[in-house]
Amino acid sequence: MELIGPDHPQYDELRRPALPQYGHIRPSVIALCGSTEDVVEALAYARSAGLAVAPRGGGHCFAGRSSTTGVQLDLSGLSAISVADGVATIGAGARLAEVYRGLHEHGVTLPAGCGPTVGIAGLTLGGGLGLLGRRYGLTCDRLVGATVVLADGRVVGCSEEQEPDLFWALRGAGGGQFGVVTSLVFAAVPSPDATRFDLTWPRTRAAEVIAGWQAWAPDAPDDITASLAVTAHQARVFGATLAPLDLGPLRQLDGDLRVRSGLAWPALKRSYSEDDPADDRIIYSKSEFFSSPLTRDTVTQLLDSGCDLNFTPMGGAYNRVPVDATAFAHRTERFLLEHAAPDHDAVRRSWSIAHPHASGHTYPNFPDPDLADWQSSYHGGNFARLVAIKHKYDPELVFTFPQALGGVR
Ligand SMILES: Cc1cc2nc3c(=O)[nH]c(=O)nc-3n(C[C@H](O)[C@H](O)[C@H](O)COP(=O)(O)OP(=O)(O)OC[C@H]3O[C@@H](n4cnc5c(N)ncnc54)[C@H](O)[C@@H]3O)c2cc1C
């Protein structure tokens, strides 16, 4: 384990999170960890120095929870990927682009997200939505085991058979809550060839596109995932299908269709990141789940809000898992709506327009520091069990931040 202080030449590069709004937070020290033993040592150091700890995977937390003025636990050295008999073991510091590449060499992949530098650990521990999710479920639904360093330095393995409560809690509520995960074991799925599609319209058609998308995408066959992004210039339905392309009623809306067929899965994922280069502007966002369609009047108001609107379909395999089978409590939703803009107040206004019609639930991987009722919003009926598990595995509330299960510090 190497400790990096503010005078070290790599300090600024290592502390910088993906979201620039948290770029001002300066850790006392960054602990570079390359093994489970390093994590044990780093936690002991933090304890002896009386410093808070924040595990950092890919650094993409929307609430800045992998940034701290205490010890930033940098897990990027734990990035090994191996596959045996369809089971993938992945170090907690691996990022999605390396995961897709590494698994594809063995003919397998995972249902997981799109951002190439998003961390597999943070993504999995909060759920994990992606283009194969309606077919295979959340990333955490494929998790079969994990190694965790607890706050007192004990190293435990967990699975359905071993520490089953901890294993349950990690699948949907595990980001920075119970311990530091050092490796994740998944039941992988075949790495498919797939078709990418993009169907675009001018912004003036956005209301009818939203209506058509809401009535179709959440109920479409599992093999197709079609997201919708409405920006200042256009409405765009895009995604991937494993079957021959059928865009249902959206075809009748006569948009501009582009299709790329026969793409290997990592190439399909890469094609999205190449189209969508990293942006270093500060963009704020808020989001919620919806279990019924937005009305025409609400859509009209949202389109006047000045925010980008990103719709992600749920349904399919996401919703075939019982709500209490894992800690992820959102198994009856139709879609997730994200409001995004450089103006935080505009984002709050847009969210307020849609909020009365939302299901009252928020995706734990899109945490929102404004939420008053975060306990039920993130965790629904699973909250009470999660609190009991928190007190069993982290009784001194070492892994605690505002909105953490152990309370507010
Ligand atoms: C550009 C971008 C694209 C995204 N795309 C998607 C997407 O396609 N699908 C989707 O579902 N989500 C997506 N997200 C949201 C993403 O899932 C969350 O931001 C997720 O928490 C990121 O994980 P991370 O490891 O990169 O972040 P980090 O900030 O490193 O970690 C997130 C949280 O998990 C904790 N944590 C990290 N590693 C560990 C560990 N090993 N043990 C215990 N706790 C840990 C951190 O302390 C923090 O609380 C995206 C976010 C961004 C910014």
Describe this structure in words.
26% of the residues lie in helices and 25% in strands. By secondary structure, it is α+β, with helices and mostly antiparallel strands. Helix 7 crosses helix 9 (296-303). It is globular, with a radius of gyration of 21 Å. The model has no long low-confidence stretch (mean pLDDT 96). The chain binds flavin-adenine dinucleotide. Flavin-adenine dinucleotide binds next to strand 3, helix 4 and strand 10.
How many E-type strands? Answer: 18
The poorly predicted ranges are none
Rg estimate, integer Å: 21 Å
Count of discrete structural domains: 3
Question: In CATH terms, what is the architecture of the largest domain?
Answer: 3-Layer(aba) Sandwich
Order of adjacent strands in the largest pleated sheet:
15-12-14-13-17-18-16
Residues in helix, %? 25-40%
DSSP helical segment count: 12
Task: Decide which structural class fits the backbone.
Answer: alpha+beta
What's the shape? globular
Report the portion of residues in β strands. Answer: 15-25%
Cα(first) to Cα(last) distance is: 28 Å
Largest sheet: 7 strands, antiparallel
CATH topology of the largest domain: Vanillyl-alcohol Oxidase, Chain A, domain 3
Distinct ligands, ions and cofactors found in the model: flavin-adenine dinucleotide
- Integer average pLDDT: 96
Query: In the CATH hierarchy, what is the class of the largest domain?
Result: Alpha Beta
Quick tags:
single chain; 409 residues; alpha+beta; Uridine Diphospho-n-acetylenolpyruvylglucosamine Reductase, domain 2; Uridine Diphospho-n-acetylenolpyruvylglucosamine Reductase, domain 3; Vanillyl-alcohol Oxidase, Chain A, domain 3; 3 domains; 7-stranded antiparallel beta sheet; 12 helices; globular; binds flavin-adenine dinucleotide
